[in-house]
Amino acid sequence: MDFRDIYVYPNGGCASVALRILKDLTNIENIRFIDDGSSETSLKILKEEIIKSNLPVLLLGGDCYATLEDRCKKEGIEYINGISLCARLLANALSAGGGGFILRDNILHISNTQLLEHAYMFHNFFLSYASKCDMDLVLEALRQYCKNIIQDSSVKKFLQNTLLVSFSSDFLSITKNFQQDIPLLWYFGTYEWYEINKHSIKKDTKVIVCNWVLLDYFIYDTALLGGGALPKLRNDKRNIYGIGHSMAEAFYYAPLREKKEYLDVRVYNAFCAFSHYIAINKDSKRAFKSMFDAVGLEVCVVEGGYPRFDNRFQKRQAFKCNKEQFLFIPRLSKPHELLEIISYLLDNGKKVLLRRHGAYENYIKWQGLDDPYKVLEAFKQDPNFSFDETPSITNEILDKSIVVTDNSSVAYSAPLVSLTPCILYSIPKNEFDLRIRNYGISFANPLLHRVALDDEEFFRVSLDLETELSVNSEKITKEIQDYVLDNFYNLGCSAEMIAKTLLESFKKQQLV
To answer: How many other C-beta atoms are found inside a 10 Å radius of the C-beta of residue 301?
Structure first.
């Protein structure tokens, strides 16, 4: 079919993701969006034009797909399921051949491609909305892609009888407890990431470099992986342990504004490749169990703790409530949505630091969009405004800051490390609303967070929190400190306990 000129219904959301993929897989040149929120481009207004044009209409709604489909049928407009089209074309392209790879000097490097990036984004964004048939189509194509690599017997031999660990500085403290006892296989998502960190791992240790979307196929025995929706490419029994890099992961799904049937599918698909998931504390264990039970997942929740938090919590100096600035770390909130509240703070003589969020920047890069942070450039003329360009967020920065974020992982890591509540500034949106409590879980914790759902509420909450910290800082600090001591698993020795669990699991797997 010729897709040079098309209509797309609706505008934004899922459509922007699918179109990014389709532009590389079809001959799309001219797109006209159908937007029922506009009096000029609504379906009813464009009806006659669409019918006369004989051009395809791609239906790209998420949980509103059924509603949009009914409207098309009512108006007598033929349409194509855009997500199904995307899945089919992506699967065909992946099935055309396996990726290139190099196995040399104990490194298996599977080349990354734009096609694999598209597969990653498709799986990540359409966990809920792609039909089982469409998602299975893409997953089967990924399996075939991997099979073409594994046909080389040297690759299979290289991968077998190893404990795979996704690289992070946090996991180094875990592996040092057993790296002399069992063969390790370090996973890196990109070769650039490997080059940066190769000096941190033991020489001659095996390494695999590949896109996350392929990883499950290359796990043969036991694995420890950082959090993230892992595409399930194999059905044989293995021990795959997951652990998020923050408590926030356990509560991420709580405020998602999705119909229950879509949300359940999202949660199931995100965690179904794992056999075990490591909870950091009692609250996260309850949240994981509530989700897993609700969607019928048999994933064992392990009481583990988290080494990074142990390290930072133990290094805490005597607390001094000396807040010099507001530190913005937005993930969901777009930079232009922060203009009003940043202006308010600067106008009131406050110092503002803004840190770009890696996940959002990666999405912008994939989409090929202009830098959305440019709208904040005007603030650079104010001596009280600056961008935080430091490699990582240190205890020193947190001690001086009142953190403002949304659904980022720092929503939990910041208050727990700084022993100071942060502000969750998040305007209710179609996809995310802090007032929602899916699975009986709330993203916001009243001890750790102060919530602002609009600009006026932020003005009040920011002032109240400053006052609260100046009057009751010692009480607040002790309450959060007590929460940590009472709720966190294996505080101070989580690396050793997780290592023991992995070692026992690996040895049992070898006996199977």
So the answer is: 18
